[in-house]
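User: Here's a structure from my thesis project, written as structure tokens. My advisor, Dr. K., wants to see whether a designed sequence matches the one we expressed. Can you design one independently, without my sequence as a hint?
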């Protein structure tokens, strides 16, 4: 992964309502490359994408933002965070850059944001055109999401304790549980993730960000319906060793979406883009080469 200080120095900032968000771009979107919007997961940030950023940028104009409450973006204490607002944020970033159409590569929490964007395209209310979506591990179906104990705690009245007890060592334990047996995060990665989670006293709002779990249940019809009804090309790349959204998600996805395009890496965990960047890129590029063939 790219050194965190370099990534921080490359950040640009823009207003979003009363707040400021950090965003990154790989260059001039007017170049003859298709755009690719990268949407990160919980509880990390767009830094997740740096393991695949250089090779992706050879073929795509890349755009990524730290969502509100994450990474280098503002983390207001009294805010009511929602997937709908995070989808608004993605629209605002692309509007600022003048991007009218884009592919999506999304992970974890970002999957749910992408489902809302797909639903908006179905409704003909989206401000840009989605050309394709590639999902990495995440809770596409709320009934298949296996929340960790800390996430369950965060949704109770004791939720504020989550930030109080969270430490870098506890983050290491949590990540070890969801990564593949032979692809654990390095100490450098854990240090970087912890710095970004802690930025702007971010540990104090971790429980507020977890509202996405009940949101998934409340909006299941809209967000799962978007998967089933859209004509947008979709691919799932799934790390099967992930206890949260691993092989059980892969098999359920195929069951729920007959003819679904899905790739399983049995020994990889929740973060395919950092655990197995080469394999993840190969699966992603193969999907996009096939899209070119169909379009020809």
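Assistant: Designed independently from the structure alone:
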């Amino acid at each position: 992964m790219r050194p965190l200080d370099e990534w921080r120095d490359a950040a640009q900032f823009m207003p979003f309502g009363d707040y400021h968000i950090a965003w990154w771009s790989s260059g001039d979107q007017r170049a003859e490359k298709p755009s690719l919007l990268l949407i990160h997961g919980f509880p990390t940030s767009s830094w997740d994408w740096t393991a695949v950023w250089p090779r992706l940028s050879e073929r795509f104009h890349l755009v990524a933002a730290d969502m509100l409450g994450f990474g280098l973006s503002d983390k207001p204490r009294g805010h009511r965070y929602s997937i709908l607002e995070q989808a608004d944020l993605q629209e605002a970033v692309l509007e600022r850059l003048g991007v009218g159409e884009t592919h999506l590569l999304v992970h974890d929490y970002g999957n749910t944001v992408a489902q809302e964007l797909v639903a908006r395209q179905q409704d003909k209310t989206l401000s840009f055109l989605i050309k394709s979506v590639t999902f990495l591990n995440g809770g596409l179906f709320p009934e298949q999401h296996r929340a960790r104990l800390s996430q369950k705690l965060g949704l109770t009245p004791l939720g504020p304790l989550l930030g109080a007890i969270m430490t870098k060592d506890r983050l290491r334990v949590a990540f070890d549980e969801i990564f593949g047996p032979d692809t654990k995060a390095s100490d450098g990665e854990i240090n970087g993730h912890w710095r970004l989670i802690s930025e702007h006293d971010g540990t104090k709002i971790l429980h507020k960000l977890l509202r996405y779990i009940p949101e998934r249940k409340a909006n299941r019809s809209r967000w799962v319906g978007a998967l089933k009804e859209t004509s947008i090309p979709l691919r799932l790349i799934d790390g099967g060793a992930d206890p949260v959204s691993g092989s059980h998600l892969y098999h359920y996805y195929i069951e729920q979406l007959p003819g679904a395009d899905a790739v399983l890496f049995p020994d990889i965990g929740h973060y395919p883009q950092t655990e197995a960047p080469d394999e993840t890129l190969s699966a992603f590029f193969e999907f996009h080469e096939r899209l070119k063939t169909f379009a020809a």
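When you compare it with your expressed construct, this may help: The chain has a mean pLDDT of 94.
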